Predict the structure.
Amino acid sequence: MNWRIEYADRICTAQEAVSHIKSGDRVVVGHACGEPSIILEALVDSAEGLDYRDVEIVHMVAMGKAAYCKPEMSKHFRHNGLFLGGSTKKAVEEGRGDFTPIYFSDIPDLFRTSLHPNVLLVQVSEPDAHGYCSFGISCDYTKPCAEKADLIIAQINPNMPRVMGDNFIHVSELDYIVDQESDIIELAPPVIGETQKKIGENIAALVKDGDCLQLGIGAIPDAVLLFLKDKKDLGIHTEMFSDGVVELIKSGVITNKCKQIDKGQCVASFLMGTRNLYDFVHDNPMVKMLPVDIVNDPRIICQNDNVVSINSCVEVDLMGQVCSESVGLKQISGVGGQVDFVRGAKMSKGGRTIMAMPATAANGTISKIVPFLTEGATVTTNRCDVDYIVTEHGVAQLHGKTLRDRARQLIEIADPKFKDELKMEYTRRFHENF
Ligand code: COA
């Protein structure tokens, strides 16, 4: 059948589309800045009228309002977070939602096995001449989920860039189409203060010409990019990237020339940034988006040499154990792709893993380098997998180092006002003065 006829037949309003969701359904929401805000809003607005009960909302990084997490929505929806953030962590903390620990690379398999998606809510680009829409800035678990979902409700949005790679779906696969133009969610560039600049500078000293980078999210990875302007032929194979990478591509620092796989291309699974980033990636063959079970598979990551993973964390103990996702028992984010990339970088010839964080949290009142992880905290990244811990005060090189050496180096890069307490623990533990 001519795809244009199918397309026209399936167009409806967001309200009509969500009326096909039933109580008890598991509804997966497209990821991060790619989330279909208009459909989500219609879902929440319809909850009372359609008397939804026990609808499970599975979502990872929620960049919109996540109104399904509001207390008054708890009789209709229950959130199952695969990663938490500002708009979702309270619901889990207050018992109105749940958190599922899972490596990002494993999520597609979850949808293929134990967590069958009844409905996928997604946002895609306009169809091309052949009827294919791009998942745009969110390929990650969204595309694999589309292959399993019983029902796909899609917003077709001309503002969604068409991004190359294994990142397309045919119009005939979409059950209900909401044909509506709206702004794509943007992530403003982070404010980079003095602390982040110093951390960025310290990390940049560990990056060599020709390295292949994975950059986590937030001010620290963005700050690193500011200090890479003098490097040559860097490559990108990363779970996500934002605007900072565009600058380095335009200035010729990122060429992807030295990669062993996907030579000449930046590989990612999702993108978060401003319109500048979204315009840059549109129809750009230099950017390749792939599902997250491919991008984040350590066996794929390590096919490139000199992979450097750069991630951030909540706290580090004196042995180098890293907690990146909870404050004690309180879950604040998730493992995401951190361990996927740490493993891949460790397996890569010449690869290195870097954990970077400010030395303190909560306006300087809490040391992030601690004798023991806070009670209830999870070890996100194992002490044997960490090569470098970086703060604004310097670099601790942990790989191959004894517990005594590790503790000594970590105390050196802690905030000065917490050093006495850490040194006391050093003396108690190692039977010698610091
Ligand atoms: N003790 C108590 N609270 C702490 C803390 C500590 N040691 N460290 C951080 N916090 C608090 C902060 O004060 C902040 O609280 P607020 O939200 O009330 O302001 C919150 O935790 C988040 O910390 P912040 O430093 O603002 O986070 P960030 O945006 O720089 O992100 C991580 C840091 C670790 C949360 C984030 O990198 C993460 O989730 N990592 C795991 C996943 C990952 O690495 N993915 C990589 C691929 S994208």
Q: What stands out?
A: The chain has 15 helices and 26 strands.
